[in-house]
Amino acid sequence: MNRAMNEAEWGGLADLPCQTRDGSVTTDTPTAISAWYQGLVRQSWSQPAGHLGNVGLNEMRLTREDNVRKRIFLKAGFAAASLLLAPLAAIAEDLPYGLKSGKPFEGTKLNILSVVTPQFDGLMLRDSEFTELTGIKTDWTFIPFGSLQEKINAEGIAANGTFDVVNYLDSWGPPNAHWLMPIDKLMERDGISMARYPAAFARSARFEGKTLGFPLRAHAQLMFYRKDLIPEPPKSWADVIRIGKELKESNPDISPLALYYNNDGNRQNLFIWLNFIWAVGGDIFNDDWTPAWTGEEALKATEDYIALHTVHKVTNPNSLAFVEQDARQSFMQGKSAMIPVWWWAYSGFRNPDTSTLTKDQVGFTGMPSYEGVTKTYAISMPFSISEYSDNKDAAWEFMKWLSNPEMDKANATVREVGGKTIINNVVTHISSLQDPDVNAANDGIQAAAWDSLRESDIMPQIPEWPEVGDILSAAIAEAAAGGDTRQLMMDAAEQAERVLRRAGRIQWAQDIGRVKPSPDTPEIR
Question: Is the pTM of this model over 0.85?
Answer without folding.
Answer: no
